[in-house]
Amino acid sequence: MIVFSMILFRSCELGFPRLVYQNDTAQATTTTKAGTSKYMLCGITDGLKDVYDIHIPDIVFPINIGVTALDFSIKGIQIANLNVPNVVVDLNGHNEVAMSALNCSVLITFEWGFQQSSYPFIKDIGTGKIIVNNAIMTGLVGSDVNRNDCPGHFIVNFIKASIDYEYFKILLDGGSSWIFQSFIDVVMGAIEDNISGFISDVIMKGVVALINNVFEDGRREKSYADYPNIIKDGRYTTGALVGVGYVTLQLTGYVYSKSNYSDEYMSASKLSKITYNKFNDDIQLAVHVECFNNAFYILNKYENAYSPPGYVVTAPPKIVFANVAAILSMQLLFNSSYIDIQLLAKPLHDDYRDNEVGIIYFEFSQYSIQSENLDLTLDSIQSEIVEWMNKKSRSSSFQFSFTHMIDIRTLQLVVDAQEQVVRLVGTIPDGCTKI
């Protein structure tokens, strides 16, 4: 068994006040077996460009050709092409995802050279290619959360079980010396003997890089477009949870002000358990109600986002899910009078595709309003508050990162009043086409 590990740390400079753990989970993305296969294949396809930059160490070995010996080197090794057309996963409830990459092909290019180890020390150089077709790789993909170098980001492990290929060929170009011309078959045989294990490792490194692209979370911490001082925290709280027939990625869902990372509205005590595999659709994103209340709290306190001109919010908006809608409650001060207002809140969703940010926001309407000041025109005030909250709703929404292969707008929004969760549920398209 060989274990390859890669730590994902793209945005570790953020000053979060503490580590997060599983009981901090307020947001989760779950994919079924079919959805996971599609998602991983799409992530692999999207990550191919990064494979070609992988550093592969040089190989140096001796070749005995009877009358003399050669010090042979293979340098400048690069994966020129890697094709992974089919991915199959098995989700059996253990800690890892059993994965098979089928019908893989790889083209590796390199520069070769040798020097005779004795007089007259003849040298020769050239280029070469290695072609591998119909490779099948099976293994286990595991994950954990990095709590040291980049807290809250993934460490992805790929445990190599086996790799086999039906077709393997070495092509050498160049080589003008009499030694190369005379002993080409010996040289080719020696190269094949010395790089057979190396080929497996190169393919493995490529696939590991692609698997990491699936879990890549460098885009997850996002500042709000209209409020650059406010950041949506996207740290993972634990490694991937693999159930029977599904896998779940668990995140905090917290919202912070960059001016005060220590101000945490949300806490584990406010969070109730989320049922991850409630639907059989390819993908479901679950967001706990406290994520929205967290955003309301931070945006109200640090950006004064919910106070219309002439009003002061004295109790920030707070929402509770009820059946197909939700109720938002808040308190405002107007002309020295306190006003308690409740609004109907219809959850909606959309995306900012260019930034790969999805949003869940609310469309507000009148519900109830109370004040001890009987001289106030409450209906007019309520209409004014509704208009203001709708104006601010999209810019102060709950936001999340997503892959561009999924059209967030096609997902169905489901309110779960029992668990106080909103879910986006739907299908991952076939073909990995960018939406």
Describe the protein.
With 435 residues, this protein is α+β, with helices and mostly antiparallel strands. The chain has helices at residues 33-46, 48-51, 178-182, 184-215, 289-303, 378-393; strands at 2-7, 27-32, 59-64, 69-83, 86-90, 97-116, 123-146, 153-174, 222-223, 230-232, 241-242, 246-251, 255-257, 283-288, 312-322, 325-334, 337-352, 357-371, 398-401, 412-416, 421-426. The strands form 4 sheets. Strands 1, 3, 4, 5, 6, 7 and 8 form a 7-stranded antiparallel β-sheet that branches. Helix 1 crosses helix 4.
Topology as H/E string?
EEHHEEEEEEHHEEEEEEHEEEEHEEE
Proportion in β-strands: 35-45%
Estimate the global geometry from the Cα principal axes: elongated
Number of helices: 6
**Helix proportion range:** 10-25%
Write a brief caption for the model:
The protein has 435 residues and is of the alpha+beta class. It has helices spanning 33-46, 48-51, 178-182, 184-215, 289-303, 378-393, and strands spanning 2-7, 27-32, 59-64, 69-83, 86-90, 97-116, 123-146, 153-174, 222-223, 230-232, 241-242, 246-251, 255-257, 283-288, 312-322, 325-334, 337-352, 357-371, 398-401, 412-416, 421-426. GO terms for molecular function: lipid binding.
